[in-house]
Design brief:
The structure is a single chain. With 228 residues, this protein is mostly helical. It is built from ten helices and no strands. It starts with a helix and ends with a helix. The relative contact order is 0.08. The N terminus is likely disordered.
Length: 228
């Protein structure tokens, strides 16, 4: 008798009988049927995963709008709602940190370019005397009024905030610190100082020193090694 998918689906298997124990080579249609079954299972799994993904998107948008999720019994599910809300808050913090870092990089490039000086000119720049302290891109979230604003805590939080993403490896964090140390190294800041107005150079030098000391302290910071 030839085995077909229908035969396999309807044939019962009583106690073991050597006469009925056929190998795949003796029954060449069996691997084909098993492959078809596995393919069908995979299709169903993909469909379920797709449906779950769409449902999750709906849940996220509902929580984002301020709604509270409900469980299968229709009761408010505060625990699941909180988990999604926490994830959304984390994503928003990461987005803001990355946006702030991008703005900082833009300001740094502008502070090193003559055209950038003219576009964002201060009174000193209008007179062609160079940039002032507040025109320099400093590694802090809030533009400092003077060098004292470049504290270790202010520099630490600004630099580490965009490095807390899940895809940021320890090597990338260390590379970022090394890059910034070179950027604010007192012996390598000649190019920046050449664009600073003469009456502002002492303040900028002090700012560079404070920024460098603050960044240097991050090299031994446990969060650089263990940041998750």
């Amino acid at each position: 008798m030839t085995f077909t998918p229908t035969n396999l689906a309807t044939t019962s298997h009583p106690s073991f009988n050597p006469d009925n124990d056929r190998s795949d080579s003796a029954n060449p249609t069996l691997p084909i049927v098993e492959h078809a079954n596995r393919a069908e299972i995979h299709r169903r799994q993909r469909r379920v995963e797709s449906e779950m993904s769409e449902a999750l998107k709906g849940d996220i948008e509902w929580v984002r709008s301020g709604g509270v999720l409900r469980d299968t019994n229709g009761r408010r599910d505060f625990a699941r709602t909180k988990r999604i809300r926490d994830q959304l808050d984390e994503q928003e913090r990461e987005r803001k940190a990355l946006a702030a870092w991008t703005e900082y990089e833009d300001r740094w490039r502008a502070s090193l370019s003559i055209s950038g000086h003219r576009k964002n000119s201060s009174n000193l720049e209008d007179r062609g005397q160079g940039i002032g302290f507040r025109s320099v891109a400093w590694p802090v979230a809030k533009l400092p009024e003077d060098p004292d604003g470049l504290t270790i805590n202010a520099v630490r939080e600004f630099v580490l905030a965009p490095l807390r993403g899940k895809d940021i490896t320890p090597s990338k964090r260390k590379d970022r610190i090394r890059q910034l140390l070179l950027r604010y190294h007192p012996d390598k800041a000649t190019f920046l100082l050449s664009r600073v107005a003469e009456e502002e150079k002492d303040r900028v030098r002090e700012g560079i020193k404070n920024a460098f000391v603050s960044l240097k302290s991050l090299q031994g910071d446990p969060e650089i090694q263990d940041l998750k």
